[in-house]
Amino acid sequence: MIEVERLRKDYGMAHALKGISFRVQRGEVIGFLGPNGAGKSTTMKILTCFLLPTSGRATVDGFDVVEHSLKVRSRIGYLPESTPLYGEMRVDDYLRFCAEIRGVPILKRGVAIDRAVELCGLRRVTGKNIVELSKGYRQRVGLAQAIVHEPEVLILDEPTSGLDPNQIIEVRHLIERLGQEHTVILSTHYLQEVEKSASRVIVIHQGEIVADDTRDNLVASMPASVITVHVRAPLEALQRQFHELLPGRKVVIETLADDSLRLRVEVGTGTAPLEESIARLVVKNNWSLLELLRERPSLEDVFRKLTMPPTAANNDAAAAGTGEVARA
Amino acid sequence: MREISVIFRRELKSYFLSPIAYVFGVLFLGVLLYLATQRQIVDGQQASMQAFFGLLPVVFLFFLPGLTMRLWAEERRSGTIELLMTFPVRIGHLISGKFFAALAFLAVLLLFTIGLPVTLATYGSLDWAPVLGAYVASLLLAGAYLAVGMFWSSLTRDQIVALLLSLVSLLLLYAFGFPVVAEWIAGFLPTWAVDLLGGISPYKYFESIARGVFDTRDIVYYLCFCGFFLHANALVLNNRRLKG
Amino acid sequence: MGAMNDSLPLLAGARRHCRGTALGLTLHVVLLVCVLGQLVYLATRHRARVDATSDQLYSLTDSTRTLVGGLQKRLVIEAYLSPNADLPAQLRDTRAVLENFLDELVQLGNGKVVVQRFNPNDDKAVLDKCTRIGVKPIDAQNSSTTAVGVSRHWQGLRLVYGGGRQKVIEQVAPTVSFLAEAIVTPAIKEVVTETRRKLGFMEWPSAPGGQEAQGTGWEYVRTLPDVSKRYEFQNLKDAEGALIPAEIETLLLFRPTDVSDRQKYVIDQFLMRGGTVVLFADVADYGLNPNRQCLKVPMGFDAKDSQWKWQDQLLHYGLEQTNQIVADLQPQASQAQNPLTGGFEYLGVPVQMGLVRQVPYPYFFHALDVDWAQISDRLASASGRLDEEQAAYFKRTLRPGIDTDEFVFKAFKQFKRTPGFYWPCVLHLRSNGAEPTLPDGVIGRTLLWSSPLTIVEEPPQSLNALLGRDLQSQLAANQAFVQKLQQRIQSEPRRQVPLMLDLRGTFPSFFRGKDRPQKVSEQKEEQDRKKAEAEAQPDAGGAVAQEPDVGPPKPPEKTAGEAKTSVVAEPTPIAVASAPGRIVAFADSDFLRDDFARGAYRQLGGPHSLFGAAFFPMLLDWLSQDSDLVALQSRLPADRRITLVDDLGDGSQDRLAAEKKLRTTQSFLVTMNVVSPCLLVLILGFAVLFVRRSQKRRFLSSVEN
């Protein structure tokens, strides 16, 4: 659906994009991740034909964004960063305008607007001026505008920025629903958004793609996850029993102030679920289990790992290491 | 065409929904009609609209930049330009839609001046053909000025800067045709340059239209003038796509 | 994008690294400017103008167009113009008009018109030339804050045609383009016209023995500057009776009286070869001596021993002249339009120094530009009630006073009337009472008609309307005179009388089947020969000797063979017209007569045929199909004054009141025109606001439910 090849964009002397390439299949929901100024917005603006690339090629549905920009634009719904809207217009007028200018046939226009209004939950505000709406509603109007013509591709640039947590959840649900029908490219620096809705994540940093994989693969590519067991038990027995249960695994045990113990067990990816056997072990020994949880490496970790300058990442790792030793 | 009409309707509607447009309209009509009636009814003895149309190039000069200043600057400031430019619409259509909307708004305002010729026709025998023709031609003049204002508006995101730039550039252009100014610049510029500047200046091109003589030269001039700045406008917008 | 300098990306871009695109952009703009500039330049060179003003004030007339478009040689217009910059404001406007006009001439001329500009203030040699050729400076007072001075400006033209003929326009300061045209075009015409058109004329002034001492010929109109510059007149009423020279196409006949047979023959043959005869006819010659006792001077159409009658000859061509004169009792027909300026045009009496009181005199009148059929109802209800049958008859038969759209009357139509006629005679198309019976191949039309209130009568001995010594008795006499006529018209039928006719076609020769009247020399020769013959052989048949001639059907001439060989051979008489000829006939000759046209009676209160003299050049131009200057003369802007208050009144009190009323009306109109549109705009704004508000309220309530 979308193909990007060695796309470069220079702003004067600054290189915003340094030749990125990626593909998006039809129906995919892509999370575009990166810190501010990484080139997410630039990529999106090029895909929506708002900007011209310095070099490289980008096509949407087989149409080049430079050569056939009109065809590309008609296939895209776009929500720009910070959701610009015509404040003096009424919501329904605005949506009608967007539908008209995108060539929704006159007979389908009413239905299309109704659908967008319904999907985005704008029923209660259609008669209001946009300028009077709350930030969340404005964001929804922006989304409604982007989907009113049922585009094949939806490009959403930071759709949740500046919203309060409730609004974020609302919008996130909305995007999830939209993702069922459209190809969606979604940029954000809120990881949760991508974690929930995106099937694939592209991490972009300083104009380069540093990771491009499915979410699970990305997570899986992280070295390990940790199981934390919080238990009240005699230390020695515990040490022995765990050693028997998980031979060869690194188990860090620390004694907490109330004499309870916290164990951190590093498990490799793809290992069989350990929680059950750990629980059985605790029950068998008649220990009291206070807490048993598995800490997965979040995208946040992935993100941080990928985008942190190498030295900073090392420091972090080093700090973790020392902490471990001390507690051990 | 559809795209032009959609843009046109939105822009025109936004003119009519904006209170500032009405303030603008009242000021414009007040100044224009006051000056015109002073010349036409109080001083004038002839039932002709020559003084009225003679005023238009100057009155337009001061008012039309106010009509165009927000056209692009506002879009850029609020970021809606990003939406506008990613709609499946050619830049030319965007410009045309906005341009004709501004022109139509002005035409509506001019419609309110129709009382003056009607008054003159009541008290004297007014020759209607040149009056109606000159009304149409004054839209050409307005078009030329609007194109300049739009061009400057596309270069900045500050409306006031756009207003000042178009006001100054129009004033300069107009002044080049002024005999006094022409003499003055003849002091340090070669004759051909003075002639050239005089030829560019809209000063002399409305004179015969105001009298009721429609000259292809004047009409071609206004169309070219208008076309140049609209084209330059498109170049600016296109160029911005390249630069970001 | 944040890195971009926002205000001027074009310029910023040009300075930045993207050389290629910046260069491309610059080229693009330059190219665009070049193309559009070229377009504007071309449009400036090849202009088409549409003048939407209803009186076409700002377009060159066809006159100038055809004149300048048809130039054979180069016309150089030397323009002596002091620099535009120095001109005072009022002259600067005229300069712009003049320059514009000259530009238009150059464009019209297709390279044949060249304008050369000289600045006399700059160059001593040019200044000298100016004074030498007669271009005159315009002195203007310019008062600045420091001093009052007189500045000298030049704005004159010299036209040089083909390197030879030239004409100087000393000063030209037109405020509008049609004034420029009115000044320059006739000058061009004068320069360009290389040969004056030759016109022939014959005139029969009042007999020297008559009561009239001063000029009763028609020399004045022939020597008008407008006329003599373009036309050359040749008196063809010579003693010999020679045929009209071939180069003459138009022959003017001023009041033919005592016409000899030979003259009749000459006129006939001229008409047969396609000439145009312009006839100014009259049946009676009234003298207007200083007492203005209008007494009939004896006059007859035919010379003493003539065999053929002039009236028969005219009738043969389709033109019937009866021995009657015409009076028009329509009051407007014999009143000057403007009593102040045109008071002398008809009969009047001086009342004070320079002031004239006009008196009605129905024998002096002009044709009115009125469609008389329009008022047939009024004419038919003269007796108090409408006679419908008569009204219908009038509607059918009555003709407009100026029954033509020919350009010769274009100017006069603006005045709603023609030049005045003085004691016109009755001259109409030959008819059997109802239908015209013109000769085959001839079409005739009547261009001017009198009003339906016309009396026709045998010319009385005296038509004096001003008997009496003092003003009172004169006025009384006049009143009685008019009353008598008015009584008479009650019993007369309503009719219109033609005042100008135009016949064209192949006229039949009046002399077909008749003997050819001989030239004077021939007659003399024949007499000599007869005498000799009588001496030689007293018993000869003499005059009956029939000579075979080349023209087959007609009776041959009586001249003897030897005579023919000795004198220049007289061409064969033309029996059937070889080319279509034309007769333009006026039922009056007095309106062009010297004493009338020159204004000899102005001191006495008239009549002065002011418009006759203006009409004559137009007539000649019309006859020679030279429409140029006629069109130019008729250009007057329509009256477009605004009258806010009906009349300013005469009395000083009225005037004051009217003045006050005027001010009130003015300020009312100004207020109305300024305030009401603004109010309307505001109302529109509030209406929109209100509609939006109510829409929103409705929406909100619908959401809450």
Count of individual helical segments of chain B: 13
| SSE series of chain B | HHHHHHHHHHHHEH
Q: What is the makeup of the main sheet of chain B? A: none
Largest sheet features of chain A: 6 strands, mixed
Structural class of chain A: alpha/beta
Question: Do you know the CATH topology of the largest domain in chain A?
Answer: Rossmann fold
Named at the architecture level, the CATH assignment of the largest domain in chain A is: 3-Layer(aba) Sandwich
Order of SSEs of chain A: EEEHEEHEHHHEHEHEEHEHEEHEHH
End-to-end separation of chain A: 52 Å
From the structure provided, what is the oligomeric state, counting identical versus distinct chains?
heterotrimer
The parts of chain A where pLDDT drops under 50 for at least 5 residues are 312-328
CATH C-level name of the largest domain in chain A: Alpha Beta
Structure write-up:
The complex is a heterotrimer of chains A (328), B (244) and C (705). Chain A is elongated, with a radius of gyration of 25 Å. The model of chain A is unreliable at 312-328 (pLDDT under 50). Chain A folds into 2 domains: 2-219, Rossmann fold (3-Layer(aba) Sandwich); 222-327, Alpha-Beta Plaits. Chain A is 39% helix and 28% strand. By secondary structure, chain A is an alpha/beta fold. The longest helix of chain A is centred in the last third of the chain and has 18 residues, at 310-327. Chain B is mainly alpha-helical and 244 residues long. Chain B has one domain (2-243). Chain B has helices at 2-17, 19-43, 50-68, 70-78, 80-86, 91-111, 115-123, 128-155, 159-176, 179-186, 191-200, 207-211, 216-243, and one strand at 213-215. In chain B, helix 1 (2-17) crosses helix 6 and helix 6 (91-111) crosses helix 8. Chain B is globular and about 60 Å long. The model of chain B has no long low-confidence stretch (mean pLDDT 87). Chain C is α/β, with parallel strands linked by helices and 705 residues long. Chain C has 4 domains: 15-45; 65-192, 3-Layer(aba) Sandwich (Glutaredoxin); 197-509 and 578-633, no CATH class; 641-666, no CATH class. Chain C is built from 20 helices and 22 strands. In chain C, the strands form 6 sheets. Chain C has a 7-stranded mixed beta sheet. In chain C, strands 2, 3, 4, 5 and 6 form a 5-stranded mixed beta sheet that branches. In chain C, strand 9, helix 9 and strand 10 (276-280) form a beta-alpha-beta unit. The two termini of chain C are 47 Å apart. The relative contact order of chain C is 0.10. Chains in contact: A-B, A-C, B-C.
